[in-house]
Amino acid sequence: MKKLSFKQKILFALFTGIVYGGILLLVHDAFDFYTIRSMAFQTLFFTILFGIGFPFVMEKLAPKMLSKVKNPEMDENETIIYEDGASLFRGAWVTVGGKLFLTNKRLIFNAHKYNLQKGETSIDLNDITEISKRITSRIVDNGLQIATKDNSKYDLVLNNRDEWIEQLQKKK
């Protein structure tokens, strides 16, 4: 799994801290539960704990979760060319973690068992019409969008996006 750069960690920490602080401010305005000093402390604590601690924990847990993702069932004469951890958007706000497989015939996403939404998503390589880069959460430049002949769009979050694009373009 690709580690986040220091800049990405700082941006993630600031983004989550600001969102959390904003929520505390709204709760304070609505119910007057917290003092400003208490909110500042909680925001700082949350920013450090979640913004820096969460990526660290995920770097340790992700390889274990990915090792438990089963390989897809493949057709005869189908072989895996490239694979890595990925997340697939299923809906506007729901991402499903798992593993992405590129075979000589298809692009296959298998969700890991810790997701509520499970299952496999398969895209025939001949159906792919467009491969484009995208920025996840308007912060991290690690997204990929696959468009198909039937006007479906699949949004993915990948660690090695440029490598995936290169591998996909070789197969197209």
Description:
The chain has 172 residues and is an alpha+beta fold. It folds into 2 domains: 6-67, no CATH class; 80-171, Pleckstrin-homology domain (PH domain)/Phosphotyrosine-binding domain (PTB) (PH-domain like, Roll), CATH 2.30.29.30. The chain contains 3 helices and 7 strands; from the N terminus they run ααβββββββα. Helix 1 (6-31) crosses helix 2 (36-67). The radius of gyration is 19 Å and the shape is elongated. It starts with 5 loop residues before the first helix and ends with a helix.
Total tally of structural domains:
2
Topology-level CATH name of the largest domain: PH-domain like
Average pLDDT level: 82
Percent of residues in helices comes to 40-55%
Using the coordinates above, name the CATH class of the largest domain. Mainly Beta
Question: Strands across the major sheet, in which order?
Answer: 4-3-2-1-7-6-5
Distance between the termini: 26 Å
Which CATH architecture of the largest domain is right?
A: Roll
Q: Please identify which CATH superfamily of the largest domain we are dealing with.
A: Pleckstrin-homology domain (PH domain)/Phosphotyrosine-binding domain (PTB)
